[in-house]
Amino acid sequence: MGRKRKANDAFVQGGAGANNADVIVSGRVNVETKVQYMSTIKFITNYCLKNISQAVSEGELILPIELNHLKILLGDMGADRIDGKVRSVSTVQGYISSLKYYYKEKSVKVSDEFREYCDLFIEGYKRKVALKKEQGLMKNFEGKVPVSHLLYIQLAELGLKACDNRSPFASLVHAFMVLCWNLFARSCSVADLRTHHFTWENDCMVIDMSRHKADQTGENITPKHVYANPYNPLICPILALALHVFSTSFRPENDDKNKIFVGVPYDIFTKWLGSSLAQLPLLGHSVKDFGTHSFRKGIASFCAGFIGGPSVIAIYLRAGWSLGQVQDRYITYSDGGDQLCGRVAAGLDFNAGANFAVLPPRLSSVSVLSGEEWNLIIPGYSDYPPGFQTCLPILTAQIVYHYRWILENVGKNHPIRTSRLFISGLIPKIREHVLDPITTGRCGVTSMAATGIPQHIELSRKLESMEKENVKLQERVECLQSAMMEQLPEKLLEAIRENYNIEGVQQMTRTEFRSLLSVEFDRYREEFTRSNYESTRTMLPAVTSSSENAQYLSWTWGGQLHRPVPETWSMPLGKVKTICDLFITGMPAEKIRPFHLIKCRYLARKDQSRFAKADGVFKFIVRVAKINQPTLDNISNLTLDIWDIIFRDSITVIVRMIQEANGKVLSKVGELSYVSMYDHIRALIPTLDQS
């Protein structure tokens, strides 16, 4: 038997239970929804003060509201404006929902008369709005317009280069948007994603959210399957997540390391979305008609548009929409329907046959990297939840497989270029163990099998196999026919010579003469090539390029030799830790030496100011580190794991010094760029000199 539970183990101390119960009851409605409801109640109260003073007492609505007062309120809310338009149906329904919420908060029962009249009013109001739309006085849609698949691709391309026009922290917009699309989810739900929501099962990533707006208790939450799209890396959700995870792998101690998107991702994304839509021509709608909800509407419409594709029920369940009381009771979730939605949402061509059943790039074995190497490219790897750890090998494989595509397509200031994975030098080692995508349905090395495949895809795969065999057979027949036509005259001639005795000089035919010339010409050409090659080889010594195997290169441009960077290189922007890492490792992918070996005067003038600031920050961190470690002399011998410890200890001291000098807490330390840190240190140095 287990330990007997004591009374004070099970309950909080007296008196607090009632307050705790009230807090739990209050939590049945989301905080944002409460704020919206109370804002509407305030609007209604102010309206009643001006127009129905009898419905208000001491600045609050009198409950229950009299039916006559309710009629006046709803009648005015649904009245025509000067331009002939009226409020949308959803707006008026929001007023009624706010009133019902207010009734519950005040512990007043909503009467049947109130409910019945509101239902009748909404029914008639819908007909009125429909008539306004028919007359062209109002738009045919309410809320935000859906984003088309074409517009989604255009925005994804802009999202990859968001860092070039905005701060490096804008790199999250691409992953944020792609996950909104693939999860059929609200932006607030994507912003709340955490590492324990993720796991990898077979050939897809499974994201099991805790709750969403329509299901605050999480009773009907179903897992969502997300698939890779190796044919179009631009909209591949697995690659998008990998780019974000490896770009933000190092986080300070005060950051929430379990959150996928730290900071204020919703605000960053909405600002970027508005500015990006303004750049695109021929949207067909105003920029204000689009919003974060447009992606949720767009992907649902996109999946429903395929003949024989995902069922409407599977789309509703993935989006978290209600099917009605009867349907919710009798129709339940199944993996197959959601898996098919996941493949279509990833952008895989539903009509491409076997390509629709593609397996993603993957590692041949998880043990390709040691525990130390995993912690090197993903700091804190061992602290991540086990489910998220199963995703990391696949995320790594996506980055390595699409490595060249990433270098050519992401923005020049994207933090992935300075990530731990890119500067660790492990990419060539990992690439040897990355298996290419296959469409056979099962991997013989990893036993990974394709899921979410409809029956017609398997039939299509068999037909494609038969078609390939038929093509091979046809090519074989044509080859045999060609050989037969070439050999037939010679065979006939041999047969005639063997069966007929011709005396005297035998005359050579034109075909035989041409054949003899061809043979002799080929023989002479071969002898000439061989003799020419031998003479050339003896005259010229072998020359090998020393730069091919060099760890770091030098470039010549601007009339100066031995430049440490190419002419097209630009000093990257980023967080303090990311840039300081480059002073230790350099950029091995571009064969650029560690930054502490680079002299500022050898860079382009446009990069000298930024590099000088980064160099100043790095040297100050090393200066602080030498206070505790006087033997810290040779920076070149530092490994990244040791540098992580030195940086963390030194930056803690520096932040404390800055806060003491400024007299206030320095917020968002982990998101500070090296330029901002330079400004703080520059203001701090005079204080240090005086002391």
What is the spatial order of strands in the main beta sheet? 3-4-5
Assigned CATH class of the largest domain: Mainly Alpha
Helical segment count: 27
Question: What structural class do you assign from the helix and strand content?
Answer: mainly alpha
Number of strands: 9
What percent of residues adopt helix (DSSP H or I)?
Answer: 40-55%
Q: Major sheet, described briefly?
A: 3 strands, antiparallel
**How much is the radius of gyration in Å?**
35 Å
Rounded average pLDDT: 81
Poorly predicted tracts of residues? 1-12, 531-549
Share in β-strands: under 5%
Q: What is the end-to-end distance?
A: 65 Å
CATH H-level superfamily of the largest domain: Intergrase catalytic core
Please name the CATH topology of the largest domain. hpI Integrase, Chain A
> Overall 3D geometry?
globular
Instruction: Give the number of domains.
Output: 4
At CATH level 2, the architecture of the largest domain is: Orthogonal Bundle
Topology:
Elements lengths: L6 H4 L5 H11 L4 H21 L4 E2 L2 E2 L5 H11 L11 H17 L6 H23 L14 H12 L1 H4 L6 H12 L3 H5 L6 E4 L2 E4 L16 E3 L10 H11 L17 H15 L13 H12 L7 H8 L5 H6 L4 H11 L16 E2 L7 H7 L8 H16 L1 H7 L10 H4 L3 H5 L2 E2 L19 H45 L10 H30 L15 E3 L2 E4 L12 H10 L19 H24 L11 H23 L11 H17 L1
Antiparallel strand pairs: 1-2, 3-4, 4-5, 6-7, 8-9
